[in-house]
């Protein structure tokens, strides 16, 4: 099974609605490592590292809108190779 890392930028109403916390819970359920952090432009950056199928499941969850309180307009994603592999999934 392939281990991959993907970095995604989630745009829409995704700050101040529990988006990072919900993303962390979903990622931990899937066994992923990485982070979700707010960006100055109002979007959220998500780094997800783990089994390819689990990373794809998280991306599908993000594209489906994430938590009910959020409104996701678009998700941009690309493969990423971090300098250091995250030890767990965090929020910043």
Task: Name its key features.
globular; 2 helices; 5-stranded mixed beta sheet; Alpha-Beta Plaits; 92 residues; alpha+beta
Helices and strands in order:
Blueprint: E1 3-13, H1 19-29, E2 33-38, E3 44-51, H2 52-63, E4 71-79, E5 89-91
Parallel strand pairs: 2-5
Antiparallel strand pairs: 1-3, 1-4, 2-3
Structural write-up:
Helix content is 25%, strand content 40%. The chain contains 2 helices and 5 strands. It is of the alpha+beta class and 92 residues long. It has one domain (3-91): 2-Layer Sandwich (Alpha-Beta Plaits), CATH 3.30.70.100. A 5-stranded mixed β-sheet has the order 4-1-3-2-5, with helices on one face. A hairpin with a 5-residue loop joins strand 2 (33-38) and strand 3 (44-51).
Short description:
The protein is α+β, with helices and mostly antiparallel strands. The protein has helices at residues 19-29, 52-63; strands at 3-13, 33-38, 44-51, 71-79, 89-91.
Distance between the termini: 29 Å
Largest beta sheet: strand ordering: 4-1-3-2-5
N-to-C order of helices and strands: EHEEHEE
Tell me the fraction of residues in β-strands, as a range. Answer: 35-45%
Main beta-sheet annotation:
5 strands, mixed
Q: What CATH architecture do you see?
A: 2-Layer Sandwich
Task: Output the CATH class name.
Answer: Alpha Beta
